[in-house]
Specification:
Layout lengths: L2 E2 L5 E2 L2 H18 L5 E6 L3 H11 L3 E11 L4 E7 L12 E6 L2 E2 L3 H13 L3 E12 L8 E6 L5 E2 L10 H9 L5
Parallel strand pairs: 2-10, 3-4, 3-6, 6-8, 7-8, 8-9
Antiparallel strand pairs: 1-2, 4-5
Length: about 180
């Protein structure tokens, strides 16, 4: 379960993270809306998009974006959107569900939604879904699981890999006894 620390940071473990994704699946399913494609934003939306693609049996497309590059990923800069969307076949079209882990300032969700409608003429509509919707966002996602009233930093379980190198795992595996 997310925990609030003295700094108002939220700490999320793997079980809670997966539960939030499952709750988002339920919200989208219960909406009655149908989608032709799932588009997730890399990196934060990759796991969310993977689950949705499997559960709804829809093709998964991936778009790399970047805005949190400064100060070890803690300071937002200009939004960069990759030139190409990665997908197994075809092009982005129809009713698209755009997924990410959270909406923070709203710049990424808004910028990518506008980019898709402007750049891909066969996209009929874009709906958005996130696990966390921060109240400070300039846009509201169509689907969200938790609204965060503050601008808390959300520590997700995969962040344990930030700052690690392959050498760290080599050293760790060398300490594990073999049978």
């Amino acid at each position: 379960m997310p925990q609030s620390g003295a700094t108002q940071d939220l700490w999320v473990d793997w079980a809670t993270y997966h539960h939030l994704i499952e709750r988002l699946v339920v919200l989208v399913d219960q909406s009655g809306l149908k989608f032709d494609q799932i588009l997730c934003l890399a990196r934060g939306g990759l796991r969310v998009g993977d689950v949705f693609s499997r559960v709804f049996n829809l093709p998964l497309a991936i778009l790399a974006t970047s805005s949190y590059r400064e100060n070890a990923g803690h300071t937002q800069g200009d939004l960069e959107i990759a030139t190409f969307i990665t997908m197994a076949h075809g092009t982005l079209k129809g009713r698209v569900l755009l997924l990410d882990d959270m909406v923070d300032s709203g710049e990424t969700l808004s910028g990518v939604s506008q980019h898709l409608l402007r750049t891909y003429p066969n996209v009929e509509s874009v709906k958005t879904g996130v696990l966390w919707y921060k109240a400070c966002s300039s846009v509201a996602p169509d689907f969200f699981v938790e609204k965060v009233p503050s601008n808390a930093w959300i520590h997700q379980p995969f962040e344990v890999y930030d700052g690690l190198s392959a050498q760290d795992f080599v050293e760790k595996s060398a300490k594990v006894p073999t049978t």
